[in-house]
Amino acid sequence: MKDLLIIAPLSLLWMLSFIPQTQCVSPVNCQWGPYGEWSPCDGCTKTQTRVRSIVVYPQFGGTPCSGGSVQTQPCETAQGCPLEQGCGNRFRCQSGTCISKALVCNGDSDCEEDNLDEHNCKEEDSKTVCDLHKPPPLIEVTGLGFDVVKGQRKGSVINTKSFGGLCNKVFSGDHRKFYRLPQSVLQYSFQVKAESDFSDEFFKSTWSYVKQIQEREQTTGTTKGYRNYDFKDALATVKGNHLIVIKSDIEVAQFQNRPPEYLPLSEEFWRALSTLPVVYDYAAYRKVLERFGTHFPSSGTLGGKFRALLNIDTDIMEKELSQREDFKECVTRTHTIFFFFKKTTTKCRDYNNAFRSAFGHKNIKDLIQAKATGGYLGRIAALEAIKLETAHENTNKFSDWAGSVKEAPVVIKQKLRPLYELVKEVSCAGIKKYHLKRATETYLMEKHPCHCQACQNNGEPEMGDNDVCTCVCKPGTEGPGCQIGKEVDQLPGLIHGGWTCWSAWSGCSGGRKRRTRTCSRPTPSGGGKYCNGEPVETSPCDGEEDLNYLREMEPHCFDSSLMPRKTCGTPPSLVNGFVLQPRDVYIVGSKIEYTCIEGYHLLGDPIAECTEDQKWERHAMECRSTMCWTPLLPDGIAGSPLKSNYIIGETVQLSCPAGGALVGPAEIQCSSSLFWIPNPKDVTCQGPAPTKIPDEVLCQPWEKKAKDKCVCKVPYECKPSLEVCATSERTRRTDRLTACKVHALWCLGQKYSLAEDGACKLSTSSDNSCPDCQLWESCDEQTGKCRCKTPEECSSLGPWIQVCARLDGGSEALTLTECEAGLWRCKGKQVQIISLQRCQSEPTLTPGP
Length: 849
Hints:
It comes from Chanos chanos. Helices cover about 20% and strands about 25% of the residues. By secondary structure, it is of the alpha+beta class. It has five domains: about 25-80 and about 465-490, TSP-1 type 1 repeat (Single Sheet); about 130-420, no CATH class; about 565-625, Complement Module, domain 1 (Ribbon), CATH 2.10.70.10; about 625-690, Complement Module, domain 1, CATH 2.10.70; about 715-835, Wheat Germ Agglutinin (Isolectin 2), domain 1 (2-Layer Sandwich), CATH 3.30.60. A hairpin with a 5-residue loop joins strand 42 (about 725-730) and strand 43. The radius of gyration is 34 Å and the shape is flat.
């Protein structure tokens, strides 16, 4: 009996050890702070506002905030609206934007929204600045604002439709045409990279995925801590799962915008800046940030992005697919489970079967989520609806989408600058820029997760779009505050530290100011890590200096009773030129200097002065072209060197592919009239120099006889042949070509390399009707349909092209004729073409019946 009394408590403790550890967290309800003072009355809307902020953010299932942060009421004021003011001696667009009269009737639409500058132009007044008007595809995406808090593109802030009197051209080898760059773009290059190149990442949990994104995140000019990542909403419902993220980025062009002082503003952004109050009103300035974002792109890459998330339950990973590293290799190297490609190994097929049996076909569609940006909307929708069990359809959908990206690209990589740098060309621009910078700092701090309370078990707090704090829990824990369970492989009671929000900046002392934070959210304990970073930050007190400068330059913006200083407006534009070091304000006596864009030379005096009568005085000047553009050469003719422009006197050497004979001039020159002489349009190539061959040797399928010699065929002369995906080393474009055409191009000196089958859309074994049968098909006269040939028909002697291939994901390379390879495809087998020549080793395989 005594022994039983001893054993019972021990048994109870043993049983309790299996109960999940739970710490209580109480719901935290939202609490608003008091409203601030009413703002001055707005002269445009005749309203005034006041703002309140959240002092306690909702968390752990607490009640979200109700009501808005801004109150508005009508008011009366004698202050006018800036949009009602005139443009002086400049041209006024219908929106109110003022542009230089030099841009009127120049053949370009420089009034972004209404084209008013080209209305009612008389023939004698019209002048053409450039012979080209089409910008690169979807160039407007380079001028959109970006909200770093939400990770979203916002309204247009840069005018990408105006050429500003500039004639900058760029050539696209993929499109085979020139495009004209808008005034906003300094550099632009068409360069396709990574098309159809998949990469994969394997994560043991949602936590590991989020933490890796957090470590990568570095946003220039912003406070760190905003966690924007793919599938954020979907991951909120994923518990204890392994994640596989499959990615493909397609880059089609790279761009660099001009510095902020040279960027033309979009008309909607200009109107928003014009109506901003000159006194600080956070509600008004925050509206601008919410509508146009916190930043804008200074440079970036255009293209498309594809992301697919595959989530697999941890239990299944450990029980059904126990050899996890092998499984990971199957997914990340062959995309077997993802079913984009069916190439696989025996081991991967075993995993495939285990995977399907563990989940069942009815639930398999819930395991994957896909997102795509860039390309045509219809093809995006089709790609995002992919299913795990339809590999061939998925591959076709991806190829269709990838092919549309070059026509409808978006910004997929970017470097950012703060939006307040674009405040200009409006009254009191200097003080408005100062206020927008202050509002940006407040807006970023409002949305920072440092306002959230610490999560239990070292969970990571996040701030949602609706100002609700949530927790990302570590493996082994769950609940609103990660309070249930315990961390995997972690000592009990170990708590890592977290930073509080920064305090407000102190007053200036010795020309510097400071702010502080503490490592107490939570305080580290039980051997946990102290926070990374410094608890104190100092900064120069440049803000006060900026205000003093603005009070001197724009005194009326601080006190409406003061007279503004006498100034000149924006300097007149110069066709194919611009002002060096432009400023927000030009007081009387200011001097400026003009210069020309690349490829143009300034003739005349480059200096202009703001005179006492508040007008610009400048002498005659002109930017005269000193270059020729890239010559347009006939197909098959190569030029060296090839670049975007050439100065007068430069030459280009013309040549034919190896063995070809040039008919016409071998050299052209950029003349003083800026034309290429002689004109290269009539230059041609004769076939390659004939090679004497023995009578008994037949020509290759990509060659033809010329008397008793073999010469290269032109690709269109090729007969039907096996289809492959091939990439031009010159244009980096991947296309569907036949084996014969690739050999013909090689024969003519063109450089092509084989690409993966998924890089282009290959024809499928089909319902072709006679007589349109493929090389490996024959006509069934009874049905009028094409059928797969027999192996004997493919093995007959003939001028077959031999290829090196792998069948059904096997590791052994086999030498096949193109007919045999096509026959395997016709029978539904997977054929991976490695080379368009015989394998180095000599195994061969005949297709079965």
